[in-house]
Amino acid sequence: MRIGAVTHLPKEGLELARRVRLMDQAGFDSLWMYETYFVAESFSRAGFIAALTERCKIATGVVDPYTRHPGLIALGAATLDRLSGGRLILVMGSGGREWTEGILQYNRKRPGTDLVKAVLVVRKLLAGETVTEQSYGFSIEKAKLDETPLRPDIPIYLGAEREGMLRTVAGVADGIWLFQMPSTGYIRWACELVKQARPNGKPVEIGSVFPLRITDDPKKELDNLKPWMAYYLSLPAVGEQYLERAGYENQHSPSD
User: What pLDDT does residue 93 have?
Assistant: First the structure.
């Protein structure tokens, strides 16, 4: 098991620099970041963190083939891997529906298919191939990177939450990035599902986020976490699936 840390974005760059240096020196295997539209962009942060650290791997926030064309994802990954000395983990996903469709007005007809094809495009470009591909949400024709990365086999983790998406991406991912409000029950279920969907039992790494608070006032921290947990449980389909798979006991009587 490897232990990484999520690098939340403070208001000041100097504070982020202080934190990531401490995380690198503390021996975390990898530093991860989120990408929330109009709040925090991840590729610029990944370059910033690469310049401040020496040993930890650097994982991008989950980037999708709608807000970033797969050709630009490959270009960004190649640049980041070279600048970081081969420490990049590329994290891709289909994009949150609330943002991609609701705010940015992208038309996601087949997000699972688009994501799988985008991963294949990125891998081919990083390997130095000339790529032509057509999908529902993007197209690319005769594209080739002028300069290949340090590693043509940069690991690609795929963010997936719903059962259907987990099954769709399990066969093409180097790693799976699970829903960020985990429980042991949910993780066991997801691991078994991914294992069944992998071709020939090929190994895959699975990661998730466990929130950790260090405090002498646990009641205050629990109260602070309740709105965060309520938000994720309220997400359509995702929250329902989490409650079903997490192993929670039903605290309500049949009359509730």
Answer: 92
Please give the structure tokens belonging to residue 210: 């466990």
Please indicate, yes or no, if residue 60 is contained in any of the structural domains: yes
Quickly state the pLDDT bin for 180 (edges 50, 70, 90).
low
Residue 183: inside a domain: no
| pLDDT value of residue 182 | 64
User: What is the C-alpha to C-alpha distance for residues 107 and 170, in angstroms, rounded to an integer?
Assistant: 24
pLDDT-derived band at 181 (thresholds 50, 70, 90) equals low
Reference 130, options 107, 116, 113, 148; nearest CA is 148
CATH number of the domain residue 14 falls in: 3.20.20.30
Report whether 157 contacts 101 (CB < 8 A).
no
Q: Tokens at residue 21, please?
A: 């240096």
Please count the structural domains in the chain.
1
Stated pTM of the model: 0.87
Contact, 62 vs 89, CB < 8 A?
no
Please identify which residue in the block is written with the tokens 């992208």: 106
- pLDDT average, residue stretch 166-195: 85
**CA distances (Å), origin 5, targets 8, 34, 142, 194:** 9, 11, 38, 23
Main-chain dihedrals φ then ψ at residue 53, nearest 5 degrees:
-120, 165
d(CA 71, CA 75): 6
What residues have CB less than 8 Å from 109, skipping those under 6 apart?
A: 136, 137
Domain residues for 74?
5-159
